[in-house]
Amino acid sequence: MKSLGARLLVTLSALLVVGFGLTLTALDFSFRELAERSRREVLAANVDALIAAAEFDRVGRLAPAEQLPEPRLLTPGSGLVATIRVRRGAESWRSGSAVGLTLRVDDDVRPGEQRARRLTAPDGTRFLAYSLGVAWETGRGKSRDYVFTAAESLEPYYRQLTRFRVELLAGFVTFTAVLLAAVLLSLRHLLRPLRRIESEIAEIEAGRRERLGDGWPRELEGVAHSLNALLSVEQQRLARYRNTVGNLAHSLKTPLSVLRGALGGEGTVDRALATRQLDRMQDIVRHQLDRAAATAPSVGTGALPIAPALEELAAALGKVHAERRLKVTVEVPPELAYPLERGDLLEIAGNLADNACKWARREVRIRASAWPAPEWRRPGLVLAVGDDGPGIPPEARERVRDRGVRLDERVPGQGLGLAMVDELVAAYGGRFELATSVAGGLEATVRLPGA
Fold first, then answer.
1. Which CATH number fits domain 4-159: 3.30.450, 3.30.410, 2.30.30, 3.30.750?
2. Contacts (Cβ under 8 Å, ≥6 apart) of 289
């Protein structure tokens, strides 16, 4: 069963059947207990009235001396009968309603004992009988034990019970049908956002839209946001791959042309020129591949602890620049984490810190902190690397981002570090800023957004 609505309906129906089944059983039991108790009380009242009216007649039999208050005891076939019997002896009296009816009632009930039992007449009629034992004074200090019995037909009760069960079952079926119809209508309304998200995903697959819309219920906001984030990452990756292929083709045109000229002319081959062009081509391919492999925060990327990676980087830089005795400090909260690849973090922080170590006089500070925003569920990341070197004039800060640009040729390098950082940060949708540090040198700040 693949439909959530069908599963919910089946589950709810099963719960209703079990719940109402238990309820019907409890109500049926309560109804039968209450009805039987009330009939026993009515029969006990008839027995009490019979005892109050009983006297010995002229022939010495115990019988009611006056007309009983219950008219049904005088009407044959009324369903209510009464008898007076000598305990373990003959019948002393029976009501007029018992004419033609044979019931085997209890005749061995001790004085003061009450007994109720179900009886069945020869014609199949079911009765409830109530008997009470009485020690009756016969005179001269003697007594005789009698059993007073009143019995009532249970057939009207069973008909009433059957009608009650049918009405209860009909009410249950009606209520269940109405409830399931209401649940079905509610499901159509509640599942509408899921049908919408399915429809929009189909439109995305067909190329008619690029991302899911807005206005989702709170329970689906996270799903829609994560899907949009995943779509955005995939779209950026696809665009980056296309751009990389175009850039690679464009970048290789010139060295290929030079290499063709070096190999295709007459005379000796300029091996030095060919080697330089092959090295250049290798650098171009490596750079474009690194750029294409750059990732952005995605749904499947786990949060990377920042402090251990930066402390490892600081230790490595301290060894590389040991002869200059630079002080490389790291200021990062231990719990700080951000979803990015470890290699990308080391690429960004490594280029910035290595550049700072080349220009610093005595100290390089690496700081990282969370970057919160109200619209983000998880905060972004701020990474800052500052030094106490000469810094970069404000008018040259944009120019040093370009590949191959170096302000001082005396310092080793190719002028690629800041450009690579700029490209990698852009792939993450972040910002890369250059400013003056507190120590008077350069402070490079990277801001990666949250989600």
1. 3.30.450
2. 244
